[in-house]
Each structure stands twice: as structure tokens, then as C-alpha cells.
Specification:
Blueprint lengths: L6 E4 L2 E4 L9 H4 L3 E7 L4 E10 L2 E9 L9 H7 L13 E6 L2 E6 L2 H8 L7
Helix pairs in contact: 2-3
């Protein structure tokens, strides 16, 4: 059995300490609110609100919510998440995006965030 500060070897299997795993966005996300933004013509996005200036919204670690099932409205999606994640079409997240025509910003509950994060990446 080998041991160092970050890894542990047991029966030939290497394990990594859970507290040593870092989210690649963790530095950027500290203190930022997770929101859903509806825009005038670019669609709907979920991500961390970096800043807002009038209708311009900067999000980090953002996903476009192209199609959702299991929530009747964005308001329900922000509160409850989706009840049919297998039917949702949420592409991969982008590191950052500037949305220039935001018309609605909804705070997302922790329950809804877990639901959104749990939707598999949709790609073609």
C-alpha cells in the first residue's frame, strides 16, 4: 500500500482524496449566483452570473437550455428543475458567454441546479 498527500493505493487500485479534486471553474464560481437567463433572441441559458450591465449579462460555466421537458415554465424550471431529464436537450457548457439582450433573470434553487447539472450533454 503506497501513500502520499493526494493519493492512496489499495490492492493495486489508486484512489484520490475527495478534497483534492478541484472543479475547473471553482475559482471563478465562488460567490456567484446560479441563474437562468432568458434572452430576446438567443434563447435560454443557465450559468453563474458574473455581472450584469443593463441588458448585458456575463455568465460563466453556462449551458444553453435548448429544450426541456418536465417543467411547465422557466419559473418552475428554476424552482424544481426538470422531471424528465432524458428528454431534455442541453448542450455542453461554455466557459463564458456575453448575452446582450437579457429580458429575464431567475435565481435557481439548489434542487433545480442539481437537476440541470444532471441532464446529459446533448450533441449531434
Amino acid at each position: 500500500m503506497g501513500l502520499d498527500s493526494e493519493k492512496l493505493m489499495v490492492n493495486g487500485v489508486e484512489y484520490v482524496r475527495a478534497d483534492s479534486v478541484k472543479n475547473s471553474h471553482s475559482e471563478k464560481l465562488d460567490g456567484m449566483e446560479f441563474v437562468i437567463v432568458r434572452t430576446y433572441s438567443a434563447g435560454v441559458f443557465a450559468g453563474y452570473l458574473k455581472d450584469r450591465n443593463g441588458k448585458e449579462v456575463n455568465l460563466v460555466n453556462a449551458r444553453r437550455l435548448w429544450y426541456w421537458d418536465g417543467a411547465a415554465s422557466l419559473s418552475q424550471l428554476a424552482q424544481d428543475g426538470v422531471s424528465k431529464p432524458g428528454n431534455c436537450k442541453f448542450p455542453a457548457s461554455v466557459d463564458k458567454i456575453l448575452l446582450t439582450e437579457a429580458i429575464e433573470i431567475l435565481t435557481v434553487s439548489e434542487k433545480a441546479k442539481k437537476s440541470i447539472d444532471g441532464v446529459k450533454v446533448w450533441a449531434q
